[in-house]
């Protein structure tokens, strides 16, 4: 019998499969799409995310990131990472690197989509396979999470992400976060002649209309658009628990607060490692506590920034506050990194 079926072959699912294979488990990934798969995301890997990939034997190219810049119309606050840089990496390149590593470990990737499963005290059946465990790594709007009834309602304003790339040379080795009362624009260098611009907002408007709220940034984007606009959302996903019998949730399927602090990929990779360790130890019930411990800083700081961003009166104070308290801003960025 297979040890682990992973539903979803995105970064979180592949990270889970790679860790399982490295732990000596027999694992199969079930994914409906052909690699590499693109997705609307900021594409910035924090230093912790780069280290987590390296621990899996995954190397990525892209562009080095030295830290984070917060920028509004009148103020700038900068914080550098402490020891090592992050990386700006195209999502397709990251996915291709993870897929290659999985192939090198002999992990089968079966074409299909799992939306429900049957489980008993000895195992779980899905996609014509039987395994000891099923890991739901099927994304922000996880069908398996919905089937298990693990989602919780959320009455807060919905936030959405939009992303496009531009053929311009990066003008900074920092991720720039441009703030306005309508949302934030994240500029991530991902190559020698390519930058990604992701917008996070609760306002339902077109990409170009959102970009018009950042005139200083718009002036820099003189090159042609390199990719079409991709969107994702609503971003916030509340989850009752990440363990339901023999089914465990990882990545965006396990719950998502917001992309505002940019460490989603790092958290997914670390959670995948923790999940596999719990399975290898025969204690899957410990994964919920491990996930909460790993995500605690992310959830607290992201929640605080979101509360500020949702209120026009406080959104305009975020960058000035970071500029007046540089030591605090740097401590926060390094804690997240």
Main sheet characteristics? 8 strands, mixed
- What is the number of beta strands? 20
The average pLDDT is 92
Gyration radius (Cα, Å) is 20 Å
Helix content: 25-40%
Q: What amount of the residues lies in strands?
A: 25-35%
Shape: globular
The secondary structure category is: alpha+beta
From the N-terminal CA to the C-terminal CA, the straight-line distance is: 39 Å
Low-pLDDT segments: none
Q: What's the total helix number?
A: 11
Can you tell me about this structure?
The model has no long low-confidence stretch (mean pLDDT 92). With 337 residues, this protein is of the alpha+beta class. The strands form four sheets. Strands 1, 2, 8, 9, 10, 11, 19 and 20 form an eight-stranded mixed β-sheet that branches. A hairpin with a 4-residue loop joins strand 5 and strand 6.
Quick overview of this protein structure:
This protein is an alpha+beta fold and 337 residues long. The chain has helices at residues 11-22, 47-55, 91-104, 143-148, 207-211, 215-220, 264-280, 286-309, 312-315, 318-324, 326-336, and strands at 2-7, 27-31, 44-45, 63-65, 67-71, 76-80, 86-88, 109-111, 118-119, 124-126, 129-136, 151-152, 160-166, 174-180, 183-191, 194-201, 230-232, 238-239, 243-244, 247-249.
Task: Output the keywords.
337 residues; alpha+beta; eight-stranded mixed sheet; seven-stranded mixed sheet; 11 helices; 34% helix; globular
Describe the protein's topology.
Layout: E1 2-7, H1 11-22, E2 27-31, E3 44-45, H2 47-55, E4 63-65, E5 67-71, E6 76-80, E7 86-88, H3 91-104, E8 109-111, E9 118-119, E10 124-126, E11 129-136, H4 143-148, E12 151-152, E13 160-166, E14 174-180, E15 183-191, E16 194-201, H5 207-211, H6 215-220, E17 230-232, E18 238-239, E19 243-244, E20 247-249, H7 264-280, H8 286-309, H9 312-315, H10 318-324, H11 326-336
Parallel strand pairs: 1-2, 1-11, 2-8, 5-14, 11-20
Antiparallel strand pairs: 3-7, 4-7, 5-6, 9-10, 10-11, 12-18, 13-16, 13-17, 14-15, 15-16, 19-20
